Amino acid sequence: MSVAFRRESDEEHLEPKFELPIPPGPNLVTRRGLSLIEQRNAELEGRLAAELPEDERKAVLRDARYWRQRLASAQLAPTPDGETVAIGTRVTILQGKTRKTLEIVGHDEADPAEKRITFASPLARAMLGANVGEVVDYRDDETIEIVAIEVRPD
């Protein structure tokens, strides 16, 4: 049928709403990350307890399903010792001639603008387990030197 013959209320032409994708692998989190997941989950549950228009309720339910699953599957990462790069460490690296400091965190806590990267990112995977002074391979022709490691505050 031609679009010209549809009523504006027809929903068949709307984009489908898919579930939020769950990152593959374990849901390792820092203490801060677990707290953020708990807060987000509580916020959504509070919104669901209130009266909401049907469309808004569907959107909140979609988000709530994601955060409920993330809370249920959260595994607190081992507390890092500060000797090796691990989840929950702040790492200063020398990449080429650029020095930068990054925090390695769980998926839901990652925020590149705040220099927080997920442990599953290629950069973090290249560094995990490395010690200060170690040079690790990254990408085809690039290396990264680990300059400093500290346990990040929670």
TrEMBL record:
InterPro entries: GreA/GreB_C_sf, Tscrpt_elong_fac_GreA/B_C, Tscrpt_elong_fac_GreA/B_fam. Residues 1-25 are annotated as: Disordered. Keywords: Elongation factor, Protein biosynthesis. The keyword Protein biosynthesis applies. Coiled coil: none annotated. The keyword Transport does not apply. One of its GO terms (biological process) is regulation of DNA-templated transcription elongation. SUPFAM superfamilies: FKBP-like. Residues 83-150 form the Transcription elongation factor GreA/GreB C-terminal domain. This is GreA/GreB family elongation factor. It comes from Sphingomonas lutea.
